[in-house]
Amino acid sequence: MKKVQTGQVIEFYSNSCLVKTKVGEFSCIAIKNVVVGDYVDVEIIQDSKRPHGKILKINDRVSKISKVINNKEKLFAANVTHVGILVTPSPKTSSEFIDKWIIKSKISKLEPFIINNKIDIDQDSKYIEKLNIYKNLNIKIVNISAKYEENISELLKFLEYKSVLFVGNSGAGKSTLTSKIIKKDLKVSTLSNDQGVHTTSISSLYELDQKIKIIDSPGMRDIQLSNYSKNQITEGFEEIFQAAKDCKFNNCNHIDNDGCNIAKCLLHGEISKSRYNNFIKLIEK
């Protein structure tokens, strides 16, 4: 066995992490800025107890995603390709929550898609109309019931060869969905080194046979966008960003300016009212 192996961080705790390599999984002391999903070079150390690892370096990331905590940006996952936004009729998922995660995904160079969960309960016309807004924006929507495992196979087919982070409000079914996919109860997290229950896990990565990677990160609900510029937020609303190019004035505020093409598109139904309202709300913060 080579002394230095390349592996991926699959569990991250407050001061340690678990790295999966071709020759096994090794507990390592976490180094600065390492997060779940990172590919790292690990020196394998043999001692009287059991082999463990020392992280030598973090390899280049394809992508990274962060969140703001106490006004500071904190990285929490790397090498993600897609963000699955769980949307439910009850508890009702707001369009603002959806739009914020679409913006966050695009800024982070990730592909957002929507998981319409709880299709086993009634979905009224307003809810369906909300989903159609995103369908018309060519955002992928997968309809499922995590509780009853309905259409899970369709979701798994879409997830093949992807690394995905699920996000959703409390009660949206994120833990239920992840548990059904990985066939493990996420309410109890056990350490891979047989030390029993560990309650300080920040996030974990699960890999399925179909080359599907699921990152489970507790607390991934609502997010702040205060660390992003108005231009970045505008680019997250792709249809609004494109319409703004035809505004009469470069400094158009898109609210009450003459010659505003966004206002024109809104009037003609080419931009949805909810998307426009969220756009104005977010750029004014």
Beta fraction of the residues? 25-35%
Number of helices: 8
Largest sheet: 11 strands, mixed
What's the pLDDT, averaged over the residues? Answer: 90
**Unreliable sequence segments:** 188-200
Q: Give the count of structural domains.
A: 3
Which structural class best describes the helix and strand composition? alpha/beta
Portion of residues in helices? Answer: 25-40%
**How do the SSEs run, as a string of H and E?**
EEEEEEEEHEHEHEHEEHHHH
Global geometry:
globular
Terminal CA distance reads 54 Å
Q: What oligomeric state do these chains adopt?
A: single chain
Radius of gyration: 21 Å
Number of E-type strands: 13
Q: What's the architecture of the largest domain in CATH terms?
A: 3-Layer(aba) Sandwich
CATH C-level label of the largest domain: Alpha Beta
Description:
The protein has helices spanning 95-107, 125-135, 152-159, 174-182, 230-236, 238-244, 261-267, 273-284; strands at residues 4-12, 16-21, 24-29, 39-45, 52-58, 64-69, 72-78, 82-87, 111-116, 141-143, 163-167, 203-207, 213-216. The chain has 8 helices and 13 strands. The radius of gyration is 21 Å and the shape is globular. Strand 2 (16-21) and strand 3 form a beta hairpin.
Topology:
Blueprint: E1 4-12, E2 16-21, E3 24-29, E4 39-45, E5 52-58, E6 64-69, E7 72-78, E8 82-87, H1 95-107, E9 111-116, H2 125-135, E10 141-143, H3 152-159, E11 163-167, H4 174-182, E12 203-207, E13 213-216, H5 230-236, H6 238-244, H7 261-267, H8 273-284
Parallel strand pairs: 8-9, 8-11, 9-10, 11-13
Antiparallel strand pairs: 1-2, 1-4, 1-12, 2-3, 4-5, 6-7, 12-13
Helix pairs in contact: 1-5
